[in-house]
Automatic annotation (TrEMBL):
Residue span(s) of domain Serine/threonine specific protein phosphatases: 65-70
The UniProt record lists the keyword Glycosyltransferase: no
Gene3D superfamilies in UniProt: 3.60.21.10
EC number: 3.1.3.16
Keyword line: Hydrolase
GO cellular component, one term: cytoplasm
Pfam family, one: Metallophos
Coiled coil regions in record: none
EC class: hydrolase
Name under which the protein is recorded: Serine/threonine-protein phosphatase
């Protein structure tokens, strides 16, 4: 990310057009999406195609990370040829990003295998998601407020990770959270979920994280916007 003043939108699992209507269309606003664009809802194909188009048109303003749904095992629901093309693209998507040198962004969570950021850079692309290991952890793991070891990613692990890599925050998606966002580990990790009323089964709100950076000196301001679900009567 640039060291110039920037407003960066962190977007979890998505309701795409509502986000653009509220926060602005690229390139007026910069976006970093945290994954899970397909396999849920009626407009998965339209959603991912629009994201890819914006990425092609505004490569310096629009960033797309891979989620656990962006893999062959969960997206084989369409014409075989189309499915193969999409999975080929999913296998090349980046896994993580660091905003302003201080916010580590990933779809799932941390991993005991993540000793150095170079380990992420060393993940080959294209790559299918394995059943275990670093890539699987980054896309699938969830934090826990009560766990005491890596099995459930406890708060001590988050603190150790942020201190080791000189980070202020870990931002991730992957989980439905009722308020649209939820902090863990003494506010060193936040889950952002941007799809309200998820699959019609959860009464969750929709949130976006607006990360304001100003360099130098570096200041980070994280705020959250709530999007109300609009109900249209027929």
């Amino acid at each position: 990310m640039s060291d110039e003043d920037v407003k960066q939108e962190l977007v979890g699992d998505v309701k795409l057009l509502r986000i653009f209507d509220r926060c602005g269309y690229p390139p007026a606003a910069n976006y970093l999406f945290l994954g899970d664009y397909v396999d849920r809802g009626k407009f998965s194909l339209e959603t991912i195609l629009l994201l890819f188009c914006y990425k092609l048109k505004y490569p310096l303003n629009f960033f797309i990370l891979r989620g656990n749904h962006e893999c062959a095992s969960v997206t084989e629901r369409c014409n075989l040829k189309i499915w193969k093309v999409f999975t080929d693209v999913f296998n090349t998507l980046p896994i993580a990003a660091i905003v302003a040198g201080k916010i580590f962004c990933v779809h799932g969570g941390l991993s005991p295998s993540l000793i150095s950021m170079d380990y992420i850079r060393a993940i080959p692309r294209p790559s299918e998601v394995p059943e275990f290991g670093l890539l699987n952890d980054l896309l699938w793991s969830d934090p826990s407020a009560t766990a005491v070891d890596w099995e459930d990613n406890d708060r001590g692990i988050v603190k150790e990770f942020t201190q080791k890599h000189n980070l202020d925050l870990v931002a991730r998606a992957h989980m439905v959270v009722e308020g649209g966002y939820e902090f863990f580990a003494d506010r060193q990790l936040v889950t952002v979920f941007s799809a309200p009323n998820y699959c019609g089964e959860f009464d969750n709100k929709e949130r976006l994280s607006l990360v304001m950076t100003s360099l130098p000196p570096l200041t980070l301001i994280s705020t959250f916007q709530q999007f109300k679900q609009r109900v249209i009567s027929h």
